[in-house]
Write a structure and sequence with these properties.
This protein is of the alpha+beta class. It is about 35% helix and about 20% strand. Strand 2 and strand 3 form a beta hairpin. Helix 2 packs antiparallel against helix 3. The longest helix has about 35 residues. The N terminus is likely disordered. Bound molecules: copper (II) ion. The site of copper (II) ion has 7 residues, from loops.
């Protein structure tokens, strides 16, 4: 019953953050300010669409009954009505303007890279993601999906990786996204961050996000890239600034040998 109600109310109900839920409809709980704005724009447009649909449906039903041949034995010769014609031209124009203003503002914000705190680079391989920290001595490691046997209790199936991308909270983090030069097109998508950007061989795309709360967040490759498409998830761990500094120290020794491995894969 609750699921049914939540379907009716889906634009106003939130879901647990960071990952998809069973029987979930609509968006994940937003984890970044950008995703919050995307959802409020969606909700605004949703109610406008609902109003128009109901209004047109009621109008049609009224016309069918009120102006049927049965009720109107002698057909009316009415043709034009200036006021009505001006109104049904102007009202849709105004509605489009109301939608366009917040829409363009948000589109601009999604591409505004003027206030970036740090950069990471995500490279797609068949079939896993590899991450690099150009601002932090080029730490580099692969993120391989955990198999069912490797999962711990709190890790979701097909979403958890052996190494998450670790980032500090409340920072604007730019992600440079590309794909293995000998590979195919993938897409780096994090639903709760409001981010989805294609990873294309030979081309460097960019996006950014800002995580508000510490925690684990999950996404997936979102471009049909081949038989391993469903098995190259993205896991992001958002931590405090101090924890991030500690992790950097750990990562410098932990992943010291990974760079060589990645160079070899790229060279193949
Ligand atoms: Cu892929």
């Amino acid at each position: 019953m609750f699921r049914f109600l939540s379907f009716l109310l889906f634009p106003v109900l939130g879901y647990a953050g960071g990952q998809p839920e069973k029987w979930q409809l609509s968006f994940q709980q937003p984890a970044s300010p950008l995703m919050e704005e995307l959802i409020s724009l969606h909700d605004m447009v949703f109610w406008i669409i609902t109003f128009i649909t109901v209004f047109v449906f009621v109008l049609l039903a009224y016309v069918c009954v009120r102006f049927s041949a049965k009720v109107n034995k002698k057909p009316s010769k009415t043709t034009h009505n200036s006021l009505l014609e001006v109104a049904w031209t102007l009202i849709p124009v105004l509605l489009l303007v109301v939608i366009a203003i917040p829409s363009f503002r948000l589109l601009y914000k999604q591409n505004d890279f003027s206030n970036i705190d740090m950069t990471v680079k995500a490279t797609a391989y068949t079939w896993y993601w590899s991450y690099q920290y150009p601002d932090h001595e080029n730490i580099e490691f692969d993120a391989i999906m955990l198999t069912d046997d490797e999962l711990s209790e709190d890790q979701p199936r097909l979403l958890a990786t052996d190494n998450p991308l670790v980032v500090p909270i409340n920072k604007n983090i730019k992600v440079l996204i590309t794909s293995d030069p000998t590979g195919v097109i993938h897409s780096w998508a994090m639903p709760s961050f409001g981010v989805k950007t294609d990873a294309i061989p030979g081309r460097l795309n960019e996006t950014y996000f800002n995580v508000k709360e510490p925690g684990m967040y999950y996404g997936q490759c979102s471009e049909l890239c081949g038989y391993g498409h469903g098995f190259m998830p993205i896991s992001v761990k958002a931590v405090s600034e101090q924890e991030f500094a500690d992790w950097l120290e750990f990562a410098k020794t932990e992943f010291a040998n990974d760079k060589f491995k990645n160079d070899n894969i790229a060279a193949k």
